[in-house]
Amino acid sequence: MSTFAIMKVIDHLKNAKKTLFSIEILPPLKGKSVKSIYDLIDPLMEFKPPFIDVTYHREEYIYKKREGGYLEKIAIRKRPGTVSICSAIINRYHTDAVPHIICGGFTRDETENALIELNYLGIDNVLLLRGDPIKAETHFSPQAGGNNYALDLVHQVSNMNKGKFLDDDLKDVDPTNFCIGVAGYPEKHFEAPSIGNDIKYLKMKIDAGAEYIVTQMFFDNSKFFEFVEKCKEAGITTPIIPGLKPLTTKKQLTLLPKTFHIDLPDDLVKAVDQCKSDDEVKQVGIEWCVQQSKELMKNKIACLHYYTMSNADIIKKIASQVF
Fold first, then answer.
1. Which CATH architecture best describes the domain 9-322?
2. Where are the domains of the chain?
């Protein structure tokens, strides 16, 4: 590991003298090398991201037909390597890395062991998420012995920060020192009955030890500003980082609302509908995201967080006009 001074995300945000640029990346597909990560990050380093998020994709299962006609259940992990990628990012770029930790697919013991490994490596920033159900599930089901909700995960990490591990008999333990981030939903989590109810649980995560919030993607800044105001009314004073993603294909007009339970503004939908190719859609998406970014920056948002979806070129075109 490099000897550069690792910082907490919350310290980056509090010390920022101007709006920061940060990105979220996906681990490469199984069978790909870390070079694909470097190829993605290298062109974006000119914008000096103080931290880079690395997502985690839970284990899923496939069934393969074997001789005799029986089906064998095989566990697969489509995108492995979050912890090792975080180490590689810190070592290569001298930039803090933020691994995503999810509930799904892990017992509390396995989660604790993963956090201990991160602590050993000096990685002390985490984004805690419940995670999505696997494709075979109609709704999220926790692992037996695992955490049900992101709030449970926040409690577990906060306890480790206080020196409280799952084994009560441990003596003279060294507390961890994780900076905890959690997700927020400007258009509410799709399972929440109301935005007020959603923010109530978000406040519980902050009270349990979360220090900052990163939002789900949105395309209407007014919804973000309304969300921030509602959070303030609920007593949430922690930094809220807006998550941004440019549209790149016409299919996303239906795919994004269905997958992420978000609305797209009429003006954006009309502009995309008029496009004759996905290249034109990309240009519309870039221009829309640039305007979103500039408006957010004018409102002195501490950091803009871009979901790269493994496409550095488009994010670079946006950042070049904003930062």
1. Alpha-Beta Barrel (3.20)
2. 9-322
